[in-house]
Amino acid sequence: MTLTQALKKHIKNTKTFGDLAAAVGAVETTTRFPVHNPSTGELLAELPDIQAAEVALAIDRADTARQHWAGLTARERSDILWRWHQLIVDHIDDLAAILTCEMGKPLAEAKSEISHAAAYVKWYAEEANRIYGETIPAPSTDRRLLVIKQPVGVVGAITPWNFPASMVARKIAPALAAGCTVVLKPAEQTPLVAGAMFALARVAGFPDGVLNLIYASDGDAVGKALCSNPKVRKISFTGSTEVGRLLMRQCSEQIKRISFELGGNAPFIVFGDADIDDAVEGAIQAKFRNGGQTCVSANRIYVQAGVYHLFSERFAERVRRLQVGDGFKPDSAIGPLIDTHALAKIEVHVDDAVKKGAMVRCGGRRIGATGTFFEPTVITNVVGSMRIAQEETFGPLAPIIRFEDPEQVIREANDTIYGLAAYFYASNLKRVWRVAEALEYGMVGINTGRMSSEAAPFGGVKQSGIGREGSRHGLEDYLEMKYLCIGSL
Fold first, then answer.
1. What pLDDT is stored for residue 294 in this prediction?
2. Which positions are annotated as active-site residues?
3. Can you spell out the DSSP letters for 77-109?
4. Which class for 43: exposed (0-12), middle (13-18), buried (19 or more C-beta within 10 A)?
5. Is it the case that residue 6 has pLDDT exceeding 70?
6. What is the C-alpha to C-alpha distance for residues 25 and 99, in angstroms, rounded to an integer?
7. What DSSP string describes 143-181?
């Protein structure tokens, strides 16, 4: 069977899993759960529904492979990662099609995500060769002090549905580069592209047991099994803050290492001296990328009073031109929401805002009787008491809030338990530095609506997470420092 045939089987076969389970390193079981296309409701696949007891088999396999993988040279691990990167690039069309089928995002956006995933693999293929230690000046001549870095061990990784390819690469590429083995549980809504990437990883030459895939519909049970198993030395999770708190409690019994990228409530601030046209385009990117279903989406758009009406008019006009539809239609800029729960939440936020005096400038309604489509929506006259200003919507809904005092808007922007991403537009250099330093967020976009890069540290402060992904800092989260004191010299 060729790789392309395997990918097609993965997306089309709804009855058996069979050979493909072995091909991607997945644990097999007799029970199944369905995966549907959110645009059409079509059944895409029925995958093995791993139970908590079976998770231990994957962990054992990873633990068995751990010493061999860690014992390879950095160059040997790097070479396999390079091959995996090239295979992802070579199969970008297959992978993007799978991603669009299961998640719904427009095909062009899906291809961009696959390219981003490949970039993480490439980055850490390079970084694998740069795991350096230290020599420390000793306090006496009869000893030498050294620091070496070694892999943490078995890593349990849990990835979300909204970026099901890039989040897989962003977590496991640095783990593999560091010499760790991995047990991955992708989101039950979007597991297919992860399986396809694992199939490519097998072709790239990762040894048996280094990468292990857990398909399961009960994420809570799998998370508990990973956190409670002493062979798992680290948990890397991207998802809601609520689940992050639960996993953190479960990890505390064993003082297990964690890296969490959690919820956000990103402010987007437009000051009076901003370039309004640039700010409008930046807000479109920050708000409507992936249909607003990103943890770094602009959730509260603050606009200074002097440019409030100008920005609101231009922004609403720009949003009206966004086309909503199936991800495979070439003119679709926004696909469906992931499920009916997401659809219901955005409707609740719109209704609450309107009842409290807000004005819907465009959109505001679901589209069609099938699928989970919602109109790109702009709401003005928003105040802080509305749910839309307090909660993360996770959908194509943009609330615009007027402000007068620059100091006050910074206080309002920081008045949240979250601290993942923030954005602002301004031209005065003094203001740029002052606001950038005052915002209590792990990442700040200044005069830009997009800032993700494999070369930069991605992560938040406060209750938006612990640790960083991407960059050289992301590799450090998978390494332990060991101090060596050599005496009797």
1. 95
2. 261
3. HHHHHHHHHHHHHHTHHHHHHHHHHHH---HHH
4. exposed
5. no
6. 20
7. -EEEEEEEE--EEEEE--SSSTTHHHHHHHHHHHHHT-E
Q: Which domains does the chain have, with CATH numbers?
A: 3-263+464-484 (3.40.605.10), 266-415+421-453 (3.40.309.10)
Question: Which of 111, 83, 89, 85 is closest to 98 using CA atoms?
Answer: 111
Q: In this predicted model, what pLDDT tens digit does every residue of 341-365 receive, in sequence order? A: 999 999 999 999 999 999 999 999 9
CA 65 to each of CA 215, 235, 238, 377: distance values in angstroms, whole numbers, following the listed order: 20, 18, 25, 50
Interatomic CA distance for residues 56 and 255, integer angstroms: 19
Check whether 8 has a pLDDT greater than 60: no
Whole-angstrom CA distances from 218 to 22, 127, 214 are 22, 35, 11
DSSP string, 224-253: HHHHH-TTEEEEEEES-HHHHHHHHHHHHT
CB 55 within 8 A of CB 183: yes
Which residue shows structure tokens 């409008």?
280
Token pair, residue 40, equals: 């059409």
Residue 205's CB: how many other CB atoms inside 10 A?
13
Lookup: tokens for 197: 């990437």
- For residue 182, the cross-strand partners are 155, 211
Nearest to 65 by CA among 162, 176, 149, 171: 176
The β-bridge partners of 257 are 234
* Ranges of H-type helices in 289-365: 308-320, 340-355
Beta carbons of 82 and 125 less than 8 angstroms apart: yes
What confidence tens digit (pLDDT) does each residue in 67-118 have?
Answer: 999 999 999 999 999 999 999 999 999 999 999 999 999 999 999 999 999 9
Residues near 157 by beta carbon (within 8 Å), at least 6 away in sequence: 168, 171, 172, 175, 182, 183, 184, 185, 235, 236, 237
pLDDT at 174 exceeding the cut of 80: yes
Helix (H, G, I), strand (E, B) or coil at 308: helix
Task: Report how far residue 33's alpha carbon sits from residue 165's, in angstroms, rounded to the nearest whole number.
Answer: 20
CA distances from 482 to 55, 140, 259, 296 (A): 30, 20, 20, 35
